Automatic annotation (TrEMBL):
The lineage of its organism: Bacteria, Pseudomonadati, Bacteroidota, Flavobacteriia, Flavobacteriales. Pfam families: Cytochrom_C (PF00034), DUF7133 (PF23500). Keywords: Heme, Iron, Metal-binding. This is C-type cytochrome. PANTHER family: LARGE, MULTIFUNCTIONAL SECRETED PROTEIN, LARGE, MULTIFUNCTIONAL SECRETED PROTEIN-RELATED. It comes from Autumnicola psychrophila.
């Protein structure tokens, strides 16, 4: 017993020593912190002046790639195969605190080039102009795919005469059922990230896209896609979202959204949710709840623009790290990704520090990306106001801060930086648009993930199947293209390139299932789904050999890929995996997520007895809720709390406002918003009014919320206060039609909208309660 005690103390002391040393090492990574200025100026700084305000770890610094007047209001970047940079510029975004002129079609996409290879852009042309706040970019061969605000349409643009300006425009995707939503341009999609699996992922809308032969295929993600501004992927195709509305710096990364939704409350800690600005940041939408005593932001409130660093131009320990912007904190977070028996965990790389922070009040990082040169790029919108107009209205906490700091004066600027390390040099500039498909194969083995992705995409977009034999050799580690053979990442990209060319076969997959690297085996299982869903018993048996694989990622992928097979053998493999791993949190949670996803897929069955119009309202409302409302209230209406954080908005489940008789109250809240404490609790997020949407949009959301989360209908005649009395049969005394539907009609919304047409502020619960009691009293008197 004494020996055990001493051994335990020794181990504990070692752990303490390790943690202390580790923390000291983290602190030593930075030089002296800038003196804290309690009253920073909101005045404009030139690019040269602003460069002096950055605080990074030793060995790292920023280089200016582009700035105003070459670019203004940049929000997203993308490179073509020759390393020319496309920049989306939202020229009408919040040009004052009232969002004046925001919906004017004056934005653009610029094309920047570095002609002398010094790392700085020196040539600029306006590739596309007269756009409405462009949101999404994706370069495919010599085309640029673009999406604008207030539309789900995707257009392809091409420069056919080489002058740097698009002269050919083609609509490649249009959703006929999409209804314009210009109520809040923050609550719309972003991304168009071409993932390893050849699908392009976006935020908000529950869909993903696949670009083939100049057209777009669409796949529905029945449990939604998640996220707000930004989506990215790692070397193995894992998707990462963030959700500013819910103050969530990372989510959706446990399983691919095609399989459902899965997040763990402890996938990062409460400490991870804290942010560490080096200046006061009083312009916080969350108000005092989100500020420390020194007025620095205490918690993520606007996470966005995330990426996984996959380049070769920074130290090796940087590769695979998660990068996310926090523009309100004037900072950029770097986080390590840890795999714990298949479950993914995030940890801040530095102890109470951010990777990049600035004392420039106008530093507004909104996007990041790994570049063709293997280095990390930061998109700085560089402006005063970063919140959209719904949160900057006169009298609001945020508006007072904007006015007092003069933040509305700083518009029309923008910078793009790259992170450089003193021990590394930028890589060479690619010429992929000019290379043959055979030459592009070399890119699949490049140490920079940007090159691998671009090469895979180029070969698939060309549809060149002459390289299929070489790809099969590469995928099965038999290629002689490389002196050291194809690395495991090259084998993975070769497999997905074959999949994209529709040239994969069972022989290749069988070899890949036996590969020495677990991520190649996992990839082979993933790609096998075409066979598995067709109940191919031979393929089911082959993947089933991995049910006891030493790697939990492989076992998790088996669950995901076999789930939709109707084969008894596939079901048996799933049962065996779960029986053998009852204590593995990831495997158990994955099965639960798959079950929930299937329930959502069949959601329409529960509406079968409803009138068609009511059913369509509820189903449409489900899509809007998962795309918009879930950002704050959670995908199941239970609120969002990850990493020990408090919920930014109240849970809807079991809310008094969703009682069946509270139809008018709920309508008022959705139209004009809600402020103040809710059920005795304060929340950092404010419910904005949605009155800019039409009556059918409002009715759809209300109908879904009441159907899915609301109370049960009354059982007695006349139990619905505030509504017209139910007609009663004079002979029987019973209602002619029992009111049991949760649906709110557009006509009912129209009445409430007209009743409060002059209202320009959010409701409080006290106001709503008094109004409801008054209407109930009037209704009882009329009866």
């Amino acid at each position: 017993m004494k020996t055990t005690y001493i051994t335990g103390l020794f181990c504990l002391s070692l752990l303490f020593t390790y943690c202390t040393t580790s923390r000291e090492k983290e602190q030593d990574a930075f030089g002296p912190k800038p003196a804290f200025n309690p009253n920073p100026s909101g005045s404009y700084m030139s690019p040269e002046e602003s460069m002096e305000t950055f605080y990074l770890p030793k060995g790292y610094h920023l280089e200016l790639v582009a700035s105003e007047p070459m670019i203004k209001e940049p929000v997203a970047i993308a490179w073509d195969g020759n390393a020319r940079m496309y920049v989306a510029e939202m020229l009408t975004y919040m040009q004052d605190a009232d969002a004046t002129g925001e919906q004017e079609q004056m934005s653009r996409i610029s094309l920047l080039e570095d002609t002398d290879n010094d790392g700085k852009m020196d040539k600029s042309t306006v590739f596309i102009d007269s756009l409405l706040l462009p949101r999404m970019l994706q370069s495919v061969n010599n085309e640029l795919l673009v999406n604008e605000t207030n539309t789900i349409n995707i257009h392809s643009y091409k420069d056919t005469n080489g002058d740097g300006k698009a002269d050919e425009k083609k609509l490649i995707y249009k959703n006929e059922d999409y209804v314009l939503n210009d109520a809040n341009m923050e609550h719309q999609r972003s991304g168009l990230d071409w993932n390893l699996d050849n699908w392009m992922y976006v935020t908000y809308d529950p869909i993903r896209f696949r670009y083939t032969n100049g057209t777009v295929e669409v796949d529905t993600l029945v449990s939604g896609s998640g996220g707000q501004w930004g989506v990215t992927h790692d070397n193995y195709g894992r998707i990462f979202y963030s959700r500013a509305g819910g103050e969530i710096p990372a989510l959706g990364f446990q399983i691919n959204p095609a399989y459902g939704s899965l997040d763990f409350p402890d996938q990062y800690s409460a400490e991870f949710s804290k942010v560490w600005p080096i200046i006061p940041t009083p312009d916080v939408q969350g108000g005092p709840l989100r500020l420390r005593e020194n007025e620095t932001l205490n918690h993520f409130t606007a996470p966005c623009g995330q990426s996984i660093f996959r380049g070769d131009g920074l130290p090796q320990d940087f590769v695979g790290d998660y990068i996310v912007c926090e523009p309100v904190a004037r900072a950029v977070r770097r986080a390590e990704i840890v795999n714990q028996d298949g479950k993914t965990i995030l940890k801040n790389t530095y102890q109470q520090q951010e990777f990049i922070s600035s004392t420039d009040m106008n530093f507004r990082p909104v996007n990041t990306a790994t570049g063709p040169d293997g280095q990390l790029y930061i998109v700085d919108m560089h402006r005063g106001i970063i919140q959209q107009g719904n949160w900057t209205k006169p009298g609001s906490f945020l508006r007072k801060k904007i006015d007092s700091l003069g933040l509305a004066e700083n518009v029309g600027h923008g910078r793009i930086y790259r992170v450089v390390h003193e021990d590394y040099k930028p890589g060479p500039k690619p010429k992929m648009l000019e290379e043959s498909s055979s030459d592009l194969l070399l890119g699949l083995n490049h140490p920079n993930g940007w090159w691998r992705d671009q090469a895979q995409k180029e070969i698939i977009v060309r549809g060149d199947k002459t390289v299929v034999p070489a790809l099969k050799q590469m995928a099965t580690a038999k290629s002689d293209l490389f002196s050291k053979g194809a690395g495991h990442l090259a084998r993975i990209h070769a497999l997905w390139t074959l999949e994209g060319l529709e040239a994969i076969d069972k022989k290749v997959l069988k070899t890949a299932l036996e590969d020495e690297h677990p991520q190649v085996r996992r990839t082979a299982v993933w790609i096998s789904e075409t066979y598995l869903e067709e109940n191919d018993e031979e393929m089911i048996a082959m993947v089933g050999e991995l049910k006891n694989d030493e790697n939990y990622d492989v076992r998790t992928q088996l669950l995901l890929s076999l789930y939709n097979s109707k084969s008894h053998k596939a079901r048996g493999i799933i049962s065996e995996i779960l029986a053998e791993n009852p204590d593995n949190e990831m495997l158990v949670a994955t099965k639960d997520a798959l079950d929930k996803n299937e329930q959502v897929r069949t959601f329409g069955k529960s509406l079968g007895s409803m009138p068609e119009g009511d059913r369509e309202l509820i189903l449409r409302g489900a899509g809007i809720f998962n795309s918009l409302c879930a950002s704050c209230h959670g995908p199941e209406g239970r609120g969002l709390a990850i990493g020990g954080s408090t919920m930014v908005a109240p849970p809807l489940e079991d809310s008094d406002r969703l009682a069946f008789t509270k139809k008018k109250t709920l309508t008022r809240i959705l139209l004009h918003g809600l402020e103040g404490p809710v059920d005795g609790k304060k929340y950092s997020s404010v419910m904005p009014g949605m009155q800019a949407n039409d009556d059918e949009w409002i009715a759809s959301v209300l109908s879904y919320i009441r159907h899915e989360l609301g109370g049960r209908p009354p059982r007695k005649p006349g139990e619905i206060p505030g509504m017209a009395p139910t007609p009663v049969d004079t002979k029987s005394g019973f209602p002619v039609r029992k009111i049991t539907s949760p649906v709110v009609t557009p006509e009912e919304v129209k009445v409430i909208r007209k009743e409060h047409s002059g209202r320009n502020k959010a409701w409080t619960l006290d106001e709503l309660q008094n109004l409801s009691e008054k209407e109930e009293h009037q209704q009882q008197n009329s009866i």
